[in-house]
Amino acid sequence: MKQYRIDLAGYKAKHFQWQVAGKVATITLNRPERKNPLTFDSYAELRDLFRQLQYAQDVKAVVVTGAGGNFCSGGDVHEIIGPLVALQKADDMGGLLEFTRMTGDLVKAMRACPQPIVAAVDGICAGAGAIIAMGSDLRLGTAASKVAFLFVRVGLAGADMGACNILPRLIGAGRAAELLYTGRAMDGAEAERWGFYNRLCESDKLLAEAQTLAKSLADGPTFAHAMTKKCIHQEWSMGVDESIEAEAQAQAICMQTKDYERAYNAFVAKQKPVFQGD
Fold this sequence. Notes:
CATH superfamily of the largest domain: 2-enoyl-CoA Hydratase, Chain A, domain 1
Low-confidence stretches: none
Strand content: 5-15%
Strand order of the largest sheet: 1-2-3-4-6-9
Number of domains: 2
CATH topology of the largest domain: 2-enoyl-CoA Hydratase, Chain A, domain 1
Radius of gyration: 19 Å
Number of helices: 11
CATH class of the largest domain: Alpha Beta
Helix content: 40-55%
CATH architecture of the largest domain: Alpha-Beta Complex
Shape: globular
Largest sheet: 6 strands, mixed
Mean pLDDT: 92
Structural class: alpha/beta
């Protein structure tokens, strides 16, 4: 099957920074002068890159962060919102729906890629930026960060890119409703207390800690991690009995991997297992 796999270490990103160190890739949103807003092109490139990660053999975990002390301020007002208003004035419902489906496809691609995604969030994390953090598997933040689902502030529903589905599962329905109805920001302490962040870090240590966490995952049983991610995603729509059966099948598959055998042999030898993801 390896002929169907690809290497992404040499990928040349056009609309953000992409670096691979070992088995960990780091995506850096890199328009610091504007607090790293997204454009049509960066949305599409992120979507396509996460789709490619399904076939990557060299990348086992991903970190997403922003340059210049901020994560992402959302969609660029001039490069996205202005053109969308023009579509609205032209009564182009098809064009508007094409855009909203494209942005949602980014979250679908993030959830479908087998690699764990760690968001390293500092400073402003708003709108679509908050969605990217939400769509990640793990989130590290700072006390100085501000997370806001701003859609209501521009006359839109909080229902954007899966927010009404995913956010309540992270922080609870009542808390999610408050953020989505009001558009207010959570500071870092509140985001951690509510369960949005896994933990807080100092700003100058945030990226390093996120990369260390990602490396620990990349050094683990990555086939099993991919199975865990798939089960977490798929079981949202299952009952308990369905979930237990799905996990029985998933675990039986993992028991066929060489990593499972390596873990046993290492335990017998009183050594630490060295996983290889197969």
